[in-house]
TrEMBL record:
Ranges where the EngA-type G domain occurs: 3-161
Lineage, highest ranks first: Bacteria, Pseudomonadati, Pseudomonadota, Gammaproteobacteria, Lysobacterales
Annotated protein name in UniProt: GTPase Der
Signal peptide residue numbers: none
Function: GTPase that plays an essential role in the late steps of ribosome biogenesis.
Subunit-level organization: Associates with the 50S ribosomal subunit.
Protein source organism: Stenotrophomonas bentonitica
Record family assignment: Belongs to the TRAFAC class TrmE-Era-EngA-EngB-Septin-like GTPase superfamily. EngA (Der) GTPase family.
Positions with a binding annotation for GTP 1: 9-16, 57-61, 117-120
Parent-record interval covered: 1 to 161 of 463
Membrane-spanning parts: none
Amino acid sequence: MLPLVALVGRPNVGKSTLFNAFTRTRDALVHDQPGVTRDRNYGVCRLDEDHPFLVVDTGGIAGEEEGLAGATARQARAAAAEADLILFVVDAREGPMDDEILSWLRKLARPTLLLINKIDGMNEDTVRSEFARYGFGEMLTVSAAHRQGLDDLLDEVVERL
Ligand code: GDP
Ligand code: MG
């Protein structure tokens, strides 16, 4: 069994874009509308052939517990609970507004990396100071869309598996 890395976060933060970058596919639908991914989507990371791992894209946790959004969030939580490493994806452009997911992740207490996506065109220091209150010792910044920071990210992930 390959180790499993789960991408979790609010809708629209770039989880599916990251999934596609990891898997070198376009299997995950990327959309500028929140909530395109409803289910879990598994693939093999193909960026480091020496350290293969499975990555699971999730549909996003929007804070609603009813209807489709609630079912989507439950899928995401289930994927995270079975993962060896969680990538908690947040959006540099939106700033820190992930408190619900944050408190859930704290309770879950699984190995988690904070991954700040969409850093392109943003002031890195400002973004880091905004997200400092989340209390992660380390913050990784990437631009999934521009494939920036993925090598460092991969090193951090592989080190933890
Ligand atoms: P998901 O809902 O978390 O899966 O987010 P998606 O991967 O579908 O991306 C949502 C939107 O953000 C899309 O319009 C993407 O093109 C855009 N996006 C994703 N990554 C980046 C990034 O690194 N920089 C910028 N500027 N936009 C991004
Ligand atoms: Mg998605």
